[in-house]
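User: For a reading group we're discussing how well predicted structures match intuition. Take L-lactate dehydrogenase. Before you show the prediction, I'll give you the sequence so everyone sees exactly what went in.
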Amino acid sequence: MTSKTRKVAIVGVGFVGSSCAYSLINQSICDEIILIDRTYERAYAQSLDLSHCMDFTHTRTKIRVGEPSDCKDADIVVLAAGANPVPGGTRLALLESSHAIYSSLIPRIMQCGFDGIFVVAANPVDVVTYLVWKLSKLPRSRVIGTGTSIDSSRLKTLLSEYIPVDPRSVHGYVLGEHGDSQFPAWSHVTIGGKPLLDILVQHPQRFGRLNLDEIAAKTRDAGWEILQRKGSTHYGIANAIAHIVRSVLNDDYKITAVSAILDGEYGQRDICIGVPAILSRAGITELVELNLTQQEQELFLRSCSLIREAAASLPAIPLSCSTASAE
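Assistant: Thanks. Here is the predicted 3D structure of L-lactate dehydrogenase, as structure tokens, for the group to look at:
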């Protein structure tokens, strides 16, 4: 990424894409945003509306409408185009429509000379991130899915309702698919540095009502509850995207649970799944391998199997892609 201007292109400016742009503007994360959508009128209206934020923000972010060729000198391209899950279905059910979108879009972006980082938010995000990696032929370090970042945030928020601390004082990750087979790695959840499992053992009277299976289910189903009640989820995931973009542009080296391509980590290869990763200007600098319990390893393998099955249903993907390790 050689651009001196911190430029982000957002493809798909529905609820998620426009909310992401709003977060980027209000957090002063980048200098320029390009909105790309199949409907020009919607993209133009969103850019106009968002431009009216500038008088009330700390810095000015230039925002304009563009097309895939405008991604050429972008530092990051956020992929948010796609349909919402249908209540009662699964995110994996969106694979066919997402494949139709990105199998034609990614080659167009790459043909213009794009050499930055993709941040994928479209569902099913693990499989779509894998698809984007294969089609783009970029190193795995430069294709990042939002993955279980939002699920990990939901887990921390839920735990903070039972244990009276700020959610930001809760540390831990949801691993696996951003979907029904995800699971919290309870063996690595800490509150202020103290393992949650130790807290439960030492304070049964205070926290005996805390049911880990129930919290895991609520974490998994949180998106569906929001979807059923208001028709879409966008604020949480938009801030998750903004967090990833900021971590990359600021070279933060923050650890976040994202969809990443595994190349031997956790004993897996050629699969994209939610795991903790160190994010920097290079994209994914390193994947963090947690020492999982036997039960957690079994849950992880189950999630891998479901993702592999979904990826196998895709039409043939070009295989002459870089498998370089994250740098």
